Amino acid sequence: MLLYLLITCLSFFFFSKSLSFPQWASKTKNLLSFYFSKYLFTNSLHQITPDLASPVLGKMSILDLPDLPLDCILELLPPSELCTMARVCSSLRERCVSDHLWEKHLKTKWGKILGPSAHKEWQCYLSSPYHLDSPHHKTSHLGLAKIISLMRSLSSIFRDDDHRRRYPSSIPLDSTMNFYLSLETGRFWFPAQVYNRENGHVGFMLSCYDAELSYDTDTNTFQARYPPHGKRAIAVEKDVTWERIRAAPVDASPHNLYVSDSLNELKPGDHIEIQWRRNKEFPYGWWYSVVGHLESCDGNLNHCQCHNSEMMVLEFNQYTVGSRWRKTMINRRDHREKGNEEDGFYGGIRKINCKEDIEMWKRLWPSSILE
After folding, report:
1. How far apart, in whole angstroms, are the C-alpha atoms of residue 258 and residue 252?
2. Residues paired with 216 in a beta bridge
3. Which residues are registered as beta bridge partners of 315?
4. Where do the DSSP E strands lie in the chain?
5. CA dist 160 to 66, 137, 156, Å?
6. Is the separation of the CB atoms in 271 and 361 below 8 Å?
7. What is the pLDDT of residues 273-318, one digit of tens each?
8. 209 neighbors 285 (Cβ within 8 angstroms)
9. How do residues 196-219 score in pLDDT, each as one tens digit?
């Protein structure tokens, strides 16, 4: 009996070494090997003679695993395979739609471009009549079939109508999985900001504007809808890439003046973003700038007193020297919206403290100086 057990264990060990596992499975191979070896060892202690009624090891179900190793396996599955596992049986479906599994995927893929406003909009979307009247709400299993069929890796899952009737899909509307799939399929338009609006149009270089975005899984890009300006219609831009999108850094409406809280500490060389709009009907966008020296200052940091002055110079160095867009001055002690219909209106200021944000602006720098 011991010889039989030794041969079985060695065979299983060499067989597992010869298999080519996918990336996620290789991380769990040791865990499964430990569990199966433990299963064989405990059986050998309690089973001296063969039991013809005992289940064959090769027919063991994944549901026979304890909760901990099963959860570890599910945590390593990508979203497409989690959706596939959810179709196997009701027990796995209950596990595969749980929030703790999908929160990691949501954060990994969408975390950098989803701000508080996007989460608020999602809650409003769930309670809106539009969402309640959607096909997903009326027939949840057909809604999920439509969603997952749009994902390229899952295009053939729902061909078996009989299987669909026996295992109807049921995703809670307020679940993280539903949030993820709604983003993945472009069904949910979320608020964010887009750098260099209209793909680097000369009038929007080194700016960032609010928009509603919808993801296109086929091109791995976004469609952006910019809010209307006065009597102008909604502007739409396609093929917006991931690197041009960010979550709004402050929770402020693009139509309201941002109340600045760092004006007194700003000094020459600091990187800032300032609100600017063409006229009163336009929403604000955020524009990149650097704090400069006053004309009375020679720029020598050892003698510079610009930070003690009420007036502060903001430089937009993407414009040529002498351009009316190159510099503007604001009063740091009593700063309000400043400007006119010809030069536009300057609004609130926020200091950029994150090096990653500064590097992002530098990567977007135009290839030639603007007039």
Report:
1. 7
2. 221
3. 290, 327
4. 190-195, 207-216, 221-226, 235-240, 245-246, 271-277, 285-292, 311-315, 327-331, 338-340, 344-351
5. 31, 22, 9
6. yes
7. 999 998 888 899 999 999 999 999 988 888 899 999 999 999 999 9
8. yes
9. 988 777 778 899 999 999 999 999
